[in-house]
Amino acid sequence: MVRIRALLPTLPPSERRVAEAAVADPAGVAAKTISELAADCDTSETTVIRFCRAVGLKGYPELRIGLAAAAGIEDAASSTLTAGGDIGPHDSLADVVAKLGYADARAVEDTVAQLNLTLLERAVDAVVSAGAVDIYGIGASALIAADLHQKLHRIGHRAAAWPDAENALTSAALLGRGDVAIGISHTGATPATVTALAEAHDNGARTIAITNFPRSPITDVADLVLTTAVRETTFRSGAMASRIAALTVVDCLFVGVAQRNFSRTTRALERTRSAVQGARGR
Questions:
Q1: What is the pLDDT of residues 191-218, one digit of tens each?
Q2: Are 29 and 67 in contact, with CB atoms under 8 Å apart?
Q3: What is the pTM assigned to this prediction?
Q4: β-pairing, 206-211 with 180-184?
Q5: Distance separating alpha carbons of residues 237 and 80, to the nearest angstrom
Q6: 103-123 pLDDT, tens per residue?
Q7: Residue of 4, 18, 86, 141 with fewest CB within 10 Å of its CB?
Q8: Computed from CA positions of residues 238, 241, 246, 251, in that sequence, does the dihedral angle turn out positive or negative?
Q9: Could you say which DSSP state residue 218 is in?
Q10: Which strand (E) or helix (H) includes residue 182?
Q11: CATH class for domain 117-274?
Q12: Other CB atoms within 10 A of residue 42 CB
């Protein structure tokens, strides 16, 4: 379900109808034959098979099994609370808190479950060996970029976060081979972030994208793509669960980098902590 939602906006219309049916009623689709689903979606069996392959499955039987499992998970969650649903105008504050808590926890769990560890390892390798690390993010993504900058900087890596479009672009123009640029965009289509990452890529820097959509524009200029898995609900677009999921990816990347040279990381953390505590005591 996570991968289907992520790919849905980029699928051809006929495959998108199949995806929308699967997202709307996973249990119902799991119970249908391929002929029934094709007819319901006004498409062909061949298109259904293409859709299965587009989301990384071998064929329709595997899709049915996956949808049945997803439906079971959602049923189990809904039996304890009406989580997963959108926040409505008549929800109590307790309902709002329960739904937000469920959605945020689910975003972290789904993100971790689908995170490509091979690509994450390569991203860690790139950052560890980088001469300089640029991090681009606009709006809510700027908060995530600032978080990664602070973490890397504190353990002694040359890193800078650029929340301004022109500053990001000018910094990207000065990167080169041996440097790394990281672009953070939930949609993967934020123009300023995509443009800055493209500039860094053209200048020879290793580029990494963190996004919820693996076929979005930012992936075209990224050497490595780390994906989140978020289903936004009411009042959440681009700011809540997506932020939590992206911070999870950032934490995984940072800890992977910090772990590579454990003694250096420990010394850097001790020195920075000592400096801050000393300043507070003056």
A1: 999 999 999 999 999 999 999 999 899 9
A2: yes
A3: 0.80
A4: parallel
A5: 25
A6: 888 889 989 999 999 999 999
A7: 86
A8: positive
A9: G
A10: strand 180-184
A11: alpha beta
A12: 9
Q: What is the dihedral of CA 127, 131, 133, 134, to 10 degrees?
A: -150
Q: Where do the structural domains in the chain lie, given as residue ranges?
A: 2-80, 117-274
What CA–CA distance (Å, rounded) separates 173 from 170?
A: 5
Residues written for the chain: 282
**Hey, what amino acid is at 100?**
L
How far is Cα 178 from Cα 172, in angstroms, rounded to an integer? 13
What CATH fold (topology level) applies to the domain 2-80? Arc Repressor Mutant, subunit A (1.10.10)
Separation between Cα atoms, residue 189 and residue 216, nearest integer Å: 6
Task: For residue 265, give both structure tokens.
Answer: 């990381």
Using one digit for the tens of pLDDT, what is the confidence trace for 9-29? 889 999 999 999 998 899 999
**In the structure encoding, which two tokens stand for residue 142, read together?**
């700027």
The Cα angle at residue 65 between residues 60 and 66, in degrees rounded to 5: 95
What are the φ/ψ torsions at residue 226 (nearest 5 degrees)? -110, 125
Amino acid making up residue 54:
A
